[in-house]
Amino acid sequence: MTTTTDRAVGQPIERLEGQDKVRGTARYAAEYPVGDELAYAWVAQSTVARGTLTGVTVDPLVEADDVIAVLWHGNAPRLSEADDPELAVFQSDEIRYRGQALALVVARTLEAARRAAGLLVVEIDEEPHDCVLRTDHPDLYTPDKVNPAFPSETASGDVDAAFESSPTTIDVTYRTPALHNNPMEPHATTALWDGDDLVLYDSNQHPPGIAAAVGTVFDLPPERVHVITEHVGGGFGSKGSARPNAVLAAMAARVTGRPVRLALPRQALFSMVGHRTPTIQRVRLAASSDGRLTAIDHEAVEHSSRLFEFAEQTVVATRHMYAAPNRRTGHRLVRLDMPTPRWMRAPGEAPGMVALECAMDELAVALRLDPIELRVRNEPSVEPESGVPFSSRHYVECLRRGAERFGWADRDPRPRQRREGDWWIGTGVAGATYPTMAQPSTARARRLSSGDYEVSIAATDLGTGARTILTQIAADALGVPLSQVRVRIGDSTLPKASVAGGSSGSASWGWAVTGACQALRSGDPSSDEAVFDSTELVQQQEKDGKHAFGAHFAEVRVDAVTGEVRVSRLFGMYAAGRILNPRTARSQFLGGMIMGMGMALHEESVLDPAMGVWVNHDLAEYHIPSHADIESIEAEWLDEQDDQINPMGSKGVGEIGIVGSPAAILNAIWHATGVRVRDLPARLDKILPHL
Amino acid sequence: MKTFTYRTATDVAQGLEPGATFLAGGTNLVDLMKLGVATPDVLVDVNRLGLGEVGDLPGGGLRIGAGVRNSDLAADPRVRRDYPVLSEALLAGASGQLRNMATTAGNLLQRTRCRYFMDATMPCNKRRPGSGCPAREGDHRNLAILGASPSCVATHPSDMAVALAALDAVVRISGPAGERTVPVTELHRLPGDTPDRDTVLEHGELITAVDVPSLGFAARSAYRKVRDRASYAFAVGSVAAAAQITDGTVTDVRLAFGAVAHKPWRAFAAEEALRGRPATRESFRAAADAELAAAEPLRDNAFKVPLIRNLVASVLEGLA
Q: Domain limits of chain A?
């Protein structure tokens, strides 16, 4: 039992809703009972990548009593324009990608809706499409900015001269495939109209944002849209903004006058809700003979859709990772007949650090230098491109301490030296980084008549432990035991919270919760309520120079007979500020590392250019690591103090685990076999021919 | 999902009306129905026909009831002792939950996992005859290198069937026209220009059992499956092998390959090339090459040729 003299923050508290989830009593968006009038919706998606929709007709044989409505461009109500064109469902006859929602069947049963959707006669004038990303695409351009608002290009010094004059250079191209977030819970909405007010039980990462976006398309102020998001089965970025399912369900509910439920099938998650763009990245590194970088040049080529420019910030991490006097970074984008890419866990850092950290490994080999030592020698004293001092940076400590814990010291640097039976064995290292951010949020703290406290904020818990951590933060700020604090989240009518994204939830919401609880504690004793808005403090904060760092170590074995790769050990050492809850933080680190393993070895959305679609669109064919793929996996962290970031001194832990862990595995594959895989994922067919 | 009616089968020979199909474990069929790939009008449940036992054959060997669950078959002490290749193949397939439901006959009759077949919005000659095969030019990394045709390059996904093919197993079939038997190696067809037909079964014929004959040296047998992750994935290549090696010479051998063809691929040519040869890596690789000489890989699946060659050598070395 925690007492008032102990601090709750820093304790390995179990997730407060964990038992409800295990028992199946935690409710998700598609599970709320809303009465017998509930209707079910099923989306009919485009089977062509580009064209014009000319008609949708319902087979009269299936237009039985169970089908209530069929909505499409020809009969759907007009919506107001949203920032995100993907939300303008059925507002145009233009087909921009295969999988686009063309019609929605609403029926009394899920089975009837699905059946009728499959039998709709959809007439399309098909046009030729272009779905293939390539470095010589004539339509490549430099976007004005990359996600969310970074400059697309940066340059300093004379990169070309440095390459000409440096004794050691590396010029390599790495490719990462399109990837899909695939949260366990698919995107789902149960929508109903209460008079002119809209109620959405919706699976998302940002209830206030969903309320605002859906409100915009239906001409409602955000407070007239009530978004309830008590539990979320993961999102990995794909639920960060309103997705078409929320608008479709709300539209269907308005047209039919019934509550409508729309849960997307797994296959639809491969087109309607976002993905990580494929990237083609060229990295050039130049170094002096003592292993100091003289130039870094990193360019990424990536795609977006015809509908919307989303430019992944692939090379932004390169801007602050290593010191070098001459530097150039850039992004080039092409708009293809493809679904719109979006945020996926560590957008930018995850693919970008594959290329940079593998290239650093290649440079270390060329220099005959230990890859850790190469990184240490290029440690910057201030953030290289901004010149701003780091609020805290313990990258070198992560590398050194991680090396000790992993057992790096006796490593033979030569590849293809260690073999046990049929297995080639090798080890690899790569750095990790993720920005430390906070966003404006508001929280409210109340003293209840029972003597307990209620703390409210419209945050969401994706399964990360956010609810638990906010309770810990509130307990300490109030100076009371955990048992006296009840945290309410997951409801857009609560005080406004920022998105559960950018690994910024704990920092942003915790800041507001701390402020509200401290205000209640120190304020007028006759007042039982305090509200705190962090906007001003957050906006005054210096944004540059704030990052978490880490180092990933991998030991792999590669079967000489088959080329199969197994990761015997995966180890992460992090410096991520103050760890608020070691139990949930460890799960975040490990989850990121496992997703990094998937990125290195398994995950790939396979494009059929002729069909204009990713063909492996289910979890049988889109592989993520299985339990059997995880052997030894561990995460540890340094005790890092940073008083410049937020009142808790915490840095985000949700994404850094996927940054660099794929590169550590790829570098270990090279060390095991001498095979350098530069085209992810590193499947056996790319390795076997070279063994 | 298309509306269907459901009834329980009462007799193995009663047959099926047009548009009807048998339902056993449902681990594949129900998925395909949800996807609109299979659209039966009637499901005839065969789970209560009493086909769930493993019995001994009079002259040795086993009679495996069509309804025996994959988990139970893999755990059967006789299978583990006399046919380890079969137990290993079963345990390499699917997941624990699926193996608890999936049946022997259902496993044999599962459909291809070709991504175009599994998506009812795509052309596919197997699902919609005459609509074309996008896999030849499109995604085919895990499709056939042997016995394919211009109209279909699908593979059969079963692990168990590969072991049964190697063991000379025989399928017992019942139907309105009576009973017949077909070797497992002849149950599945090659696609030719009618890839919509997976097997030689006529509509209404029901597999009632699989007989695995006595094969003494099968006590030394093994199954090796290669896949893209450590568990819960279909094979990208597999080998089932049993070998009798006397004084360093291969006196008899059974070999079958998985994930290379429209059917579990019994490697008769490789077996022939091995009999009487020294049990060395060179012989094993030469035997594999004898079989793989007929391979016609596509753009992205040529790796399966060296993969199978390596697997054959490795598995046989393990048995030698």
A: 18-27+438-540, 36-128+182-270, 145-179+276-436+544-690
